[in-house]
Design a protein that fits this description.
The chain is 27% helix and 30% strand. The chain is α+β, with helices and mostly antiparallel strands. It folds into two domains: 105 residues, 3-Layer(aba) Sandwich (Aminopeptidase), CATH 3.40.630; 143 residues, Gcn5-related N-acetyltransferase (GNAT) (Aminopeptidase), CATH 3.40.630. The N and C termini lie far apart (37 Å). The mean pLDDT is 93.
């Protein structure tokens, strides 16, 4: 008999959700839903929370809302129908898309898919440096310049690093010969023998097409491999040709596609 209970955890108490996600992370690239790194990036917000479903005190799923998108990863063998039924009140709160959890009556998004790309560890070199406290402002500067609507701030960088997931972050920064911050990447470790994740990666508009973004990626996944990651994954929109080309140039191969579930009547 299944008896689900759902807990809404603030950032500081998200450790049980993190441990479950690490345990469920595969050797190769995740196919959808959540990686511990997705949780880590989400927890840059002080008021961020995460849903943890348990059955007889055993974690069976982890999820959170990202705008109108519900992102969920379930334990192998979990009853997805029961999870979808229990999430009904979340879905009624303005949610119209789901990643990782099929919702009865919803349909697969027919727009261009997200590409799941993976890299297997091998020797490499790059121009990166690992981000330390003294580099945090430059890492934030790159993020804000690379993404026009970015809400990342130094305070949110500190919130991310203080969260239970912060210790899993591996951040790289690439500078120009003059010392200007040019590109940055954040990689997330999920445990020895498990797949790491890149989220996010950005290049300053003033320094694009000079190989800085590729070096940031190379440095991040080299650092993850040094910690024992079995592979490194990244998920990119298939329509984002520049990002897909960057990851291909850095040695990533497309190993799958991911499509959200969309509420009936939505595209």
């Amino acid at each position: 008999m299944i008896s689900l209970a759902r807990h809404c955890l603030p950032s500081a108490d998200s450790g049980p959700a993190l441990r479950a996600l690490c345990e469920w992370t595969p050797v190769d690239a995740p196919g959808g839903g959540l990686h511990p790194g997705d949780l880590g990036w989400h927890l840059r917000f002080d008021d961020a929370s995460v849903h943890l479903w348990v059955d007889d005190a055993m974690p069976v799923a982890v999820g959170f809302l990202e705008g109108s998108l519900l992102r969920v990863t379930a334990a192998p063998g979990a009853d997805l129908g029961a999870l979808a039924a229990d999430a009904e009140d979340i879905l009624d709160a303005g949610c119209d898309r789901s990643d990782g959890l099929a919702i009865p009556g919803w349909h697969r998004d027919q727009a261009e898919p997200w590409l799941v790309m993976s890299w297997s560890p091998r020797p490499l070199s790059s121009r990166t440096e690992l981000v330390a406290e003294a580099d945090a402002a430059d890492r934030v500067l790159v993020q804000r310049a690379a993404f026009a609507r970015s809400s990342f701030t130094l305070e949110r960088w500190h919130s991310m690093k203080r969260s239970p997931v912060g210790g899993l972050a591996v951040e790289t920064l690439v500078r120009t010969p003059a010392g200007a911050p040019a590109a940055a990447a954040t990689g997330w470790f999920a445990g020895v023998g498990r797949c790491g994740l890149l989220e996010p990666v950005g290049t300053h508009p003033d320094h694009r097409r000079q190989g800085y973004g590729r070096d940031a990626v190379l440095g991040a996944y080299a650092a993850l491999a040094d910690r024992g990651a079995s592979a490194v994954a990244v998920v990119a929109q298939s329509t984002n040709e520049a990002a897909v080309a960057l990851y291909r140039s850095a040695g990533f191969d497309v190993i799958g596609e991911n499509r959200d579930w969309v509420r009936a009547g939505r595209t």
